[in-house]
Write a structure and sequence with these properties.
Layout: H1 2-17, H2 31-34, H3 37-60, H4 64-92, H5 101-138, H6 145-171
Helix pairs in contact: 1-4, 1-5, 3-4, 3-6, 4-5, 5-6
Length: about 180
């Protein structure tokens, strides 16, 4: 199930990011509506970072039910992020960094590269843990939920924080607008 969901997510993202000759995007939604999505996405990502930290603290304190609530909310927000991100990119196309070359090369591109790499790595880990978390609540059993979580949590957190840095760099006067 993890593989199917992951491949589905990668396929949808790939289609949204694929270059389209002669037009900028699919115009799935009005461009003026899609122009607000980066800001909404940033709020979602910041909220997800907070929820992940609360979920981590909850499990460290052996508050399993609270951990499940925070992580379930985190997963729900990341699904909302993916929907908005696909709609944004399909409608507006990818964004370009317009700031100074030195910041582009020393900060923006490394942050973007690490963010994208960790995002790609995180998807199957997060999906697996969401599925096993739900399964573990339904019935006691053995899974790699804890072990995978020890990789998924920091990878997902760092990816989100770097995504927020990329968002800021694309919008601050020195970086993009």
């Amino acid at each position: 199930m993890t593989a199917i969901i992951t491949l589905g997510a990668y396929t949808v993202l790939g289609l949204a990011l694929a270059p389209i000759d002669g037009r900028e995007g699919f115009a799935l939604i009005p461009r003026d509506v899609a122009s607000f999505f980066p800001h909404i996405i940033a709020v979602i990502n910041l909220s997800t970072v907070v929820l992940l930290q609360l979920g981590y603290r909850s499990i460290r304190g052996k508050r399993i039910s609270l951990h499940a609530v925070f992580m379930g909310a985190s997963f729900t927000l990341i699904v909302a992020f993916l929907v908005l991100y696909v709609l944004k990119v399909a409608t507006l196309g990818p964004e370009a960094y317009k700031g100074p070359e030195i910041l582009r090369n020393l900060v923006y591109l490394p942050a973007l590269t690490i963010h994208l790499t960790l995002s790609i790595i995180s998807v199957p880990l997060v999906v697996y843990n969401a599925l096993t978390g739900l399964w573990l609540r339904a019935q006691a059993g053995i899974s790699h939920h804890r072990r995978v979580g020890r990789i998924a949590y920091p990878a997902w957190t760092v990816s989100l924080v770097l995504g927020l840095l990329v968002y800021a760099m694309l919008r601050l006067p020195i970086g993009g607008g």
